[in-house]
Amino acid sequence: MTEPLRILVGSKNPVKINAARSIFSLYYPDMTIDCQGVDAPSQVPDQPIGEDETRIGAQNRVLYCQQHYQADFYVAMEGGAEQFSYGPATFAFVVIADNQQRAIGRSSNLPLPPSLYNALLQGKELGDVMDTAFNTTNIKQQGGAIGLLTNHHATRESTYTQALTLAMAPFLHPALYSKEV
Fold it and tell me: Where is 82: in which H helix or E strand?
């Protein structure tokens, strides 16, 4: 029997671990997937504001995992928010790395009500803001703001899954991605 494909996720959040597991199961259907989560610091605020801060948080989580653990792939997802020209929105950055390369992806935007975005600017985390607005408990380890604001037609996990699916492209076609433009 072959060794399992070892995936390390820079979070113990089951939503993030499940998203990573489902993607690697999709791309490596004949392999046993060993997908584990570890506490990995983002070194950004608990609620990142802006695309750069959010992306850097995911990159930092992957880098920490690479420095402290051995795996075939390292994965991190970081949710953030920003005020865009068309209104406030939340989104996530994903980072996937192995020992040769790294890919960065981003989810689509979920428009946020201005009052909820303003609470984030006051230092609150989106999950806590959503729990208060919708009278839920620990929504960030369930469907997230995405689930609540889309009446559960999309979820935090489905958004991570889509972003991870796209970020896998360089690993599936490394020769194409290694060529200079």
Answer: strand 73-84
Residue pair 43/60 in contact by the 8 Å Cβ criterion: yes
Task: For residues 2 and 131, give the distance between their C-alpha atoms in angstroms, rounded to a whole number.
Answer: 44
Q: What CA–CA distances, in Å, run from 7 to 33, 35, 138?
A: 7, 5, 25
Known binding-site positions for Mg(2+): 70
The pTM is what? 0.93
Q: Which residues are annotated as a binding site?
A: 70
Provide the residue-wise pLDDT of the chain in tens; the chain has 181 residues.
Answer: 679 999 999 999 999 999 999 999 999 999 999 999 999 999 999 999 999 999 999 999 999 999 999 999 999 999 999 999 999 999 999 999 999 999 999 999 999 999 999 999 999 999 999 999 999 988 777 778 898 999 999 988 999 999 999 999 999 999 999 877 6
Domains of the chain in start order, with CATH, are 5-174 (3.90.950.10)
